[in-house]
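Subject: sequence -> structure tokens, single chain

Hey, anyone have a minute? Need the predicted structure for the following. Not urgent.
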Amino acid sequence: MKFIGIIPARFASTRFPGKPLAMLGGKMVIERVYRQAEGMFDAVVVATDDERIESAVKSFGGNVVMTSTNHRSGTDRCYEALQKVGEENFDVVVNIQGDEPFIQPSQLKAIRGCFNDETTDIATLVKPFTKEDGWAALENPNSPKVVVNKNMEAMYFSRSIIPYFRGKDREVWLEKHTYYKHIGLYAYRKNVLAEITAIPQGELEKVESLEQLRWLENGYTIKVATTNVETIGIDTPEDLQRAEEFLKRQEV
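Reply:
Had a minute. Here:
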């Protein structure tokens, strides 16, 4: 089975324009993401719509393809990139968010492992919230939560806290139930990627602004792998500062 890692990266961002080119520990965020994925798949490529990002990726020797500026999501950008590099050469596409510089090889292996099951069409990654994370992390709308079934398949994703723990003070929710944080990593069989990019946005996706709800709403099953490794996505300048502090702690 042939895997390709595709890193969608665009310059425009409401909360943090140009974040793929932001410097983190002396390297651009996009380079850190690329280096984490390098060697984990049969190929790795950045998919962008901006010449500044294209030039930056080439400057550190990475593979990059230019894609349309009109895509609704990173998934749509991944599909165009797959077509440009040759979809006949790969079986599974791994969509690695361009703002996840601390994604780990163990996490990439975990999502690859989901495809040892021939019935897996889409896979993603979750991490249990811990008491140390605290209530602020659990209620953060920029950190989507996931409810899974007994087969470790996603039932729903939300920016709200799910499930609501009725009858218990919120201070003990993390002690009494395992809440899952969604890690922004997806993988799809290439035929499924073609199908889901052709589906119109659904109401759930529009309400929550989470594209994976489109797939659930249309009956696709999302297999979930678990990690205990913390990552820090770069959504805001404040996240970049937290990432700098995290990196310094790792280097001590």
